Each structure stands twice: as structure tokens, then as C-alpha cells.
Amino acid sequence: MMPAPPQPIDRDVPLDEESTAKIGFLYSVFLLAGLVAFVMGFVRWQTSVAMGFVDFGFAGFNFGLLLYLRRNPQKVEIVSTLSLSLSFVLFLAIYLLATNNTMRLSLFFLLAASGFFLKGRKIGRLWLSGIILAIVAVHASGLFATGYSTLDIATTCVYLIALFFIFENYESFKEKERERKQSEEEALRAKEIAEAENQAKSRFLTTMSHEIRTPMNGILGMAQLMLVSRLTEQEQHDHARTILNSGQSLLALLNDILDFSKIEAGKLELTPAVFSPRQIVDEAATLFAESAKAKGLVIEAVWHGPIDQRYLADPMRLRQMLANLINNSIKFTGSGFVRIEGREIEPMADASLLEFSVTDSGIGIPPEKLTLLFRPFSQADSSTTREYGGSGLGLSIVHNLAKLMGGDAGVESEPGKGSRFWFRVQAIQQTANVDSRKTARTTSIEVPAEAPTLAGLVLIVEDNPVNRKVAQAMLGKMGIQSKSVDNGQEAVDAIAQGMRPNLILMDCQMPVMDGFEATTQIRRWEMANGQPRLPIVALTAGAFEEDRQNCLAAGMDDFLTKPVNMADLSASINRLLGKPTS
Q1: pLDDT above 70 covers what percent of the chain?
Q2: What does DSSP assign to residue 147?
Q3: Cα separation of 419 and 329, whole Å?
Q4: What is the reaction catalyzed (predicted)?
């Protein structure tokens, strides 16, 4: 086998401050020592050829290291070690042989100082100890006539030890200086981070203020017109539709903020269920058909796979992610099309990788802006926010949800030609014979649920008068009679005194007694008195999975969040009253 060729040294890599200082020091030492040794070689050549050769050799050694370090600055540690080691050998030889030179012990001071500077405190201590040990050992052995007395050696050792303390204090000072600079840099970084966070918060508050006030203006403005104006039936319908659309926009914004907060806190939980990807793609197209039609866009939906294929994942989050992408495409597409596609791209041993994509013929995105799209509160251009609106959370939520579901999200785009947004998730493929009870339930806002046929009574347990009025009006439109009480205690008392409604709509957070305790007491009363189980539906502002689980654990039969959709309320009543309740 041929040996691998040596890797070239990258001389363009920047050196740190300490290495740069060492190189400067070594340049000075090599140049000065080389010149002095070269001159001394000529001088000593007259009296001792051997010492002349030593001086010339030392000069060549220093000039050679200087040139090598010049070409290979990254080798500064190797060069410094080699220089110190060979200098020690040379100075020791001078100490032993040049007995006519009374200043030769001073060379060891230079050597000790160089060791501290080049190798630091820890190795410098060992280096100094070795120098002292060598000087003392040579003198104590008596093998060499150095010409120095015991007092000379002792004095030299004391000076070397004093040098040790000087460098110890110097290193302590340097360490404190480094710590001070590090603290200043950390404080500066913390300040920059805090300023960036404050700017992000400021942008967020500005954006949220705009995004909240826009639908609120539609709601309050149209409500005022309906109060002070004599309107035709068509005008009333148009104003009410504007109020409804504005309210839905506001709710979508709040849901995005809640989801983003849960994702950031790591508290968002997935709810797996069996689903049909073709159904999800088709429903998404149906859901946005009116929005696309209003802008003159053609909306298409394609599932590239078996029609009856089923998978296990979180279908609610898939719909949410797809809705964010479609809404984004419709918003930024003035003419042309929006195409929704789904496919299985990578079957794996324990799961499959599904890809959903939305392609449009919109304005497109410059390449340098693509990396910003999936960051929270970001859009490709600030002018985009002014022209098209948006909180900048939708794509960030898609990206984070895709990661949470074992996949990823991305975009390909060309300015002026359009964009293709996609996300991938892991899902477990199901066999054809799927238990229908485990299949994800789907609802369409375009097709209202069949109105319940109920000749009985619904008890509304709600402390807020506006919410009571909304529930009563919705039930009235369905042809259902209702009564209301203000808190859970009144509901428990009414049941105990003989009221038997067909169904209870139960708020959760109320004064006197909340909905959880009221439901628990009603269930106890039913068991103690042998009464059939009343269907109880939670109608609450709690929108988290934890809220749903708490309601079901307390004994409630279904869970609806405020603001309630009339179709969802109708579907819940149909579902509960269409099955045995005992």
C-alpha cells in the first residue's frame, strides 16, 4: 500500500495572540544570538579553533531556526522546544569547557527566562528546576574544573529562584489580565445578545400590534356599523362575514403564538392517529379553495401514492403545517397556481418518510434571503410585512414541527418564477385493514355538520354572560332549548334537585366551584342515586392537550375550545346523543 502523501501546511491560518508573541520573541532571540555567535566565532578562532567552530555552529543553528519558523509559523511550539533543548546543551558545554569565561553562568538566566516565556508557568517551573539541578550536580560531582566556588553556585541558584518568583508574579498578573479581558468580552457579548433580544422583542411587539389590530379593526368596525346603520340583509351578511373572517385571523395568530411558545419551551406534545395522506391533501385544497378563487388562482391537490394508504402520525399537526404553507403561497401569489402534493419518498424499516409540498407561481425569493425564512419573526423583506402582513411565525412553526416529527423543512425558489416549500415527517405505514375508530377524524369548515335533532334541554354552565349568550344563540339556531347557571355549584344543586337536561356544556374556570369539581360531584351523585350518565361537554378557553386530558379525567365526555365553532358544537352534540349515555 502506498503511503498517504503528507498534507500541505496551511500557512494562512491566523495565529492567536500568544503564538504571535512567541514568534516575535524567537525572531529576536535567533537573530541576536546568531549575529553575536557569528562575531564571537571570528574572535575566538584566533585563540581556539574548537570554540570558533562551536560559535559558528550556534550561529548557523539560530539562523536555520529563524528561516524554518519564518516558513512554518504554525510550528512555533516545536521550534521553541528544539531551541530551548539545544541551547541548554550548548550552554552546559560552555559552562563545563569555557573556564576562562567568568560570565557563562549568566547564560542560564536567559535560558530560564526563555523557558517561562515560551512554555508557560507549569513547564517553566520544571525547566528552572532542571537548570538548577544541572548546575549543582556538575559542581558537586567535582569532575569538572569550572572555576566557580560553592558561594558562586549558591548565589546563582538564589538568583535563579528569585527569577522564578518574578515570573510567578508576572504569570499571575497575566492570568488576571486575561480573566479581566475575558470578563469584558463576555460582558460585551452579553450586552450584544441582550440588545439583539430587545430588538427582536421590539420587532415582535410591533408586528403583533399590527397583526392583532388589523382583525380587531375589522371586528369592531363592522360591529359598530351593524349597531348604528340600517342595513340590507346582504349588507348584514357581508358585515357578519367580515367579523367572522377577522375573528378567525385573530384566533390563528393567537394559536401560532401559543404553538411557538410551546415549541420553544419543549412542551409541545404530538397526538398520533391513523390518517389518509390523500384525504389531508384534498381537504387542504378544499379549505383554501375560496381564498384561491378570490385571487383568481388555480389550486391543485395531488397524492402520489395508493388512494387507500394509511399512516400513523399526528394528522392535526400535518394539517396545520400544510395550512401554513398554503396560506403563505396564496398570500404571495398574484396570479397563476398553487399546487399541493404529497408522496412517500423513503420507506424505512420502522417508519416511512412522507413529503408534503406547496408549489406556487408567486413572487419568488432571492437566494440570500432563503436562510431567514424559517427563523421566528422573520420574512424575506421588511417591506413584505408591510405589503402582505404576517407575524413571521408560520414557517418557523412548520420547521420546528417537522423536526419534532423526525423530519425537516425547506424551500426552493427563484425570484419572479415562484417557490416550492416542503416538509418531511416520519410516519408508520398501516395495513389496509385499519380499525376505523383509530382513524383520524376530519372536519371541514365548508360543510356544516348536520343540525342535531333534540327536543330536550341543554344546561349551560358558564360564568361569563357574553359566553352564555353565544352558546344560547348557537343552540337556539339549532332548534335546541337551553338554560344556564353561573357556576359549578349551581349546576350540581340543579341536578340534585331534579333537573335532567339531555346534555351539559361545562366551563372549566368559574368562581365558587370550577367545572372539574362540578363534573366530579355530578358523577358521584349519578352513581349514588343510580341515575344514567349525563353527557358533559367541556367548553373552555384552555387550548392545550393537558387541558383536554384534565377534562376527560374529571369525567367529561368531549372537549371544545373557545371560541367555539358552531359546526364543532353541532357535531359534538350529534356524537354524544347518538350513542348510549348510561
Answers
A1: 85
A2: -
A3: 8
A4: ATP + protein L-histidine = ADP + protein N-phospho-L-histidine
